[in-house]
Design a protein that fits this description.
Helix content: 10-25%
Shape: elongated
Order of helices and strands: HEEEEEEEEEEE
CATH topology of the largest domain: Lipocalin
CATH class of the largest domain: Mainly Beta
Number of domains: 2
């Protein structure tokens, strides 16, 4: 009898650990997988199309230039998503500015009755972009965005030659938006500086423009 009990006990000692080993191992592996921290840094690319509304060009030399300076643009922003709350990257794009322009002073309108100047330019914006996200459990993620950089004028055309050559300048954008799944929507304020130079390269006058912008795009 003792011999039988001893054999049964020995068999149980051999079988039970073998039965328990596999489930415990699988559970531990799954638990480790669940608790493994996700990567806090991942690449992010965004392609946006947008439109900057017209506004006055404010100059130090000639007062305010009344213009419907409108700027459709295409931007590509590449960078890294730092956790769930922050993004930092660099943007580059192409922007076409067009409109009619005439000089205005406080007392009177210069050139009243004459045809307004028509002009257009293609510029290349290059800037740094930082965003702060407010993640939640829905597919809608709001954020605030700041872009600071500059733009280089690739080509420009004016109806009057006395404006000289157009150069770029400082570019800044401040806004708020939201990601809905992979889609992006934003609006805010854009500030852009311009500089006109003569044939000798001497600055004729500088101007700044502040206007609203709206954009939509896709995030990869």
């Amino acid at each position: 009898m003792k011999k039988i009990v001893s054999i049964i006990a020995l068999a149980m000692m051999m079988v039970l650990p073998a039965m328990a080993a596999s489930p415990a191992g699988d559970y531990d592996e799954e638990l480790m997988s669940r608790n493994k921290p996700a990567s806090t840094v991942k690449p992010q690319i965004e392609v946006n199309v947008g439109y900057i509304t017209g506004g006055k060009l404010d100059t130090k030399n000639f007062g305010k230039l009344q213009t419907n300076l409108s700027r459709p643009y295409l931007d590509v922003i590449g960078g890294v998503r730092l956790g769930s709350f922050l993004f930092a990257g660099v943007g580059v794009g192409v922007q076409y500015a067009y409109g009619e322009c005439k000089l205005i002073t406080k007392a009177t309108e210069i050139g009243k009755g004459s045809a307004p100047d028509t002009w257009g330019s293609v510029s290349i914006p290059i800037y740094a972009n930082v965003r702060g996200y407010f993640p939640n459990k829905s597919i809608v993620t709001p954020y605030i965005t700041v872009s600071i950089g500059g733009h280089v004028v690739a080509t420009s055309n004016f109806s009057k030659e006395n404006y000289g050559k157009l150069n770029g300048g400082l570019l800044m954008k401040f806004g708020a938006g939201m990601n809905i799944s992979k889609f992006n929507f934003a609006l805010g304020m854009a500030s852009q500086n311009l500089e006109w130079v003569n044939a000798e390269g001497t600055t004729m006058f500088k101007a700044g423009n502040n206007a609203f912008y709206i954009e939509a795009g896709v995030t990869f």
